[in-house]
């Protein structure tokens, strides 16, 4: 008697061996980030606020994108991140998810969407996952956001925590390096441990002295993502409009500018205008007959 042999179960699609430069095509998950920390592998993260830009970064192999509330200053024309709403965050996060197929997309919880407490935080996080399709959310604060982090994580949504300079508190703390001095450094370490104990899968460290960021990185088993926090973090994030030279004005010291899109786009706009005014655009090849 012959037995029908059931085909071997398809192996789960192999994870890419590395986050950047890997060959895998499935979406990166938070587990991949945990494994990267175990391997001692560094990884890059960029912000993204629209589908087309996100698709460029996805094709370039950027493994993690943050739909940051920096969209307030960098995309929506606000002065700070404070006015960003859940509606704006949901709309733009959904666009970034649609524009990508491999990157893990993290949606920021905007100011006012989680500060009231854990239940409000869970409601906001759930909306970003269900309506926008993000794979994780980010919120500011360690000890002060403990209950929120715990409940969101327990409900099955991965949380990235954001420490150091937390721009949603700009009205209270301004924009300056955090964690200087013994007491502030100890508080940052306590916040990082609290975030990890509450179940956060990673911690952003913004504007923190490099030595302190290195100490936090060594003391956590989850990855640290630095922005103005030196070279010892497990990952680095930059706001895409800053590092591509699209943002106008003076850049903070921690930004490295990899392109000058502001000049490129301005030059292209002027060239177009001059062609139109001078009658050299359109030409015959641009016309229909
Ligand atoms: O909103 C944002 O872009 C951020 C990054 C700077 C980490 O929070």
Protein model, in words:
The chain has 289 residues and is α/β, with parallel strands linked by helices. It is 39% helix and 13% strand. It has an eight-stranded parallel barrel with strand order 1-2-3-4-5-6-7-8, surrounded by six helices. The chain is globular and about 70 Å long. The N and C termini lie far apart (74 Å). Bound molecules: 3-methyl-2-oxobutanoic acid.
What is the average per-residue confidence, as pLDDT, rounded to a whole number? 94
Q: What string gives the helices and strands in order?
A: HEHEHHEHEHEHHEHEEHH
Structural class: alpha/beta
Helical run tally? 11
Strand order of the largest sheet: 1-2-3-4-5-6-7-8
Ions, cofactors and other bound molecules: 3-methyl-2-oxobutanoic acid
Q: Into which percent range does the helicity of residues fall?
A: 25-40%
Please state the CA-atom Rg, rounded to the nearest Å.
21 Å
Report the end-to-end length measured between terminal Cα atoms: 74 Å
Shape: globular
Query: Could you describe the largest sheet, including whether it forms a barrel?
Result: 8 strands, parallel, barrel
Strand content: 5-15%
Counted beta strands: 8
Low-confidence stretches: 1-12
GO molecular function: 3-methyl-2-oxobutanoate hydroxymethyltransferase activity; magnesium ion binding
EC number: 2.1.2.11
Family: Belongs to the PanB family.
Pathway: Cofactor biosynthesis; (R)-pantothenate biosynthesis; (R)-pantoate from 3-methyl-2-oxobutanoate: step 1/2
